[in-house]
Amino acid sequence: MKWVLFFAFLVIERISAELSEYTTSTTSFTCDFFKQAYNPAENVVISPVSIQTSLSMFYPFAGNKVAPVMQQCLYLPADKNHATTNLRSFLQSLNAKTTAGTSTFKMLSKVYHVDANLKPQVAPLFKESFGAEIDVADFHDQAKVAAEVNSWVNRATNGMIKDFMQADDVRVDNDLMLLNVVVLNASWEVPFSAADTESMTFHFVNGDHPVDMMFKQEQVLYANLPDHGCQAVELLYEEGTDLSMVIVLPMKKSSLENVVRDMGVALYEKINERLSLERVQLAMPKFTMRKKIDAQELLKNMGLTALFEELDLDLLERDKSRIGEIRQTTFIKVDERGTEGAAATETQAVGRAGYPNFYVDRPFLYLIRKRSTKNIIFIGHYSAYEQ
Questions:
Q1: Quick one: how far is CA 154 from the chain centroid?
Q2: What distance in Å separates the CA atoms of residue 107 and residue 127, rounded to the nearest whole number?
Q3: How many other CB atoms are there within 10 angstroms of residue 381's CB atom?
């Protein structure tokens, strides 16, 4: 039995609300996957687009048993050449603006493979179409492979993720291992002042606890969505990064569960349509999250069981393969500088200077995205007090 193993490790301008074909695809998968991962009792930050991107790289090699499932669950076109072109264009656009000032954003991929068994067209496609680094590995030398992977991940994430893999995590019957890493270290366009940060009560699902709350008054893109029981703001990262964070806050009479239930392409488009410039009194907590997930069961729940059970990936000269394990490690830190993710908040509330309050003092959902394409890079929620 052959396995494939990969690890998937996130002047104000109003942007169009209309989503492109590929952004609709990534948004649909992101929302589907997030709903599977959502747990109000545990804070979550994930990059579904990283998992979707990694799986899509195998689509050109999928046989008749697996390809229809991948097409449906990953929202891919039936034409594999069209899917490859879309993915190539997406990766190029994603990395088009990667550095500005002190900010960095990048998505990197690396393939380790057994040279003797891999079909000759596989490595060139990963390298030329998907921009992945290619290297040969002897998976029987588990300690060496783990050390090389950890070294690459550590460098790729600028030290944010260390000791990602243990020797026992390396399967000796691997034919190919795909790593996909998303790195974000972004400064706010208008930073919060550390002098204004103060301790305030946050209403977690498991009780009220004090948090460090950041404050500022700023002109932001603001959306009021009473029909979905929520409101949203978009906070821009440093000019030139093409990145922003969208915070979706349930109204007092609603809940995060309702927002998660409604989150999909339609609500995402509606948020984009209603975002307009508004000066608000903004308060939001500082937070740090590190999340590890085993994505296999979540993907099976979404209908991708065949991908893990059918030997239907045509990567090898003699045998066919299937996906073995999928894991993701995500780290996010949000503070006054930027992101390395008991006042009631209602739209009619008015701050001291006559501006609406946007006080993020209860469970909320957040997105980090590319503004020009509106592709969601990270999605998460902050709802539970974790010591």
A1: 19
A2: 14
A3: 24
The encoded tokens of residue 354 equal 């006559």
CB burial of residue 243 (10 Å; 0-12, 13-18, 19+): buried
Phi, psi of 46 (to 5 degrees): -140, 165
Helix (H) or strand (E) holding 56: helix 48-56
Residue 109, strand partner residues: 180
Name the 3-class secondary structure at 275: coil
Alpha carbons within 13 angstroms on the beta-carbon side of residue 84 total 16
The b-or-e profile of 257-292 (16+ CB within 10 A means b, else e) is: eebbebbebebbbbbbeebeebebbbbbbebebebe
SS3 state of residue 212: strand
Q: Which amino acid is at 132?
A: A
Classify residue 101 as left (phi > 0), alpha (psi -120 to 50) or beta. Answer: left
Domains and CATH numbers, the chain: 15-186+289-333 (3.30.497.10), 194-285+351-382 (2.30.39.10)
End-to-end CA distance of the chain: 43
Tens place of pLDDT for every residue, the chain, 387 residues? 344 444 444 333 344 445 688 899 999 999 999 999 999 999 988 899 988 988 898 899 999 999 999 999 999 999 999 999 999 888 888 766 555 566 677 777 887 877 767 788 888 888 888 888 888 888 889 899 889 888 988 887 777 777 788 888 887 777 777 777 777 777 888 888 888 889 999 999 999 999 999 988 888 899 999 999 999 999 988 877 788 999 999 998 889 999 999 999 999 999 999 999 988 888 999 888 877 787 888 999 999 999 888 888 888 777 788 777 777 777 777 887 766 521 111 112 222 344 568 899 999 999 999 888 899 999 999 999 987
Rounded CA-CA distance 324/346 in Å is 47
Q: What is the gyration radius of the CA atoms in the chain, in angstroms?
A: 21
* Cβ atoms 309, 75 nearer than 8 A: no
**Pairing verdict, β 322-334 and 3-8:** parallel
Which residue, chain included where needed, has tokens 């040969």? 136
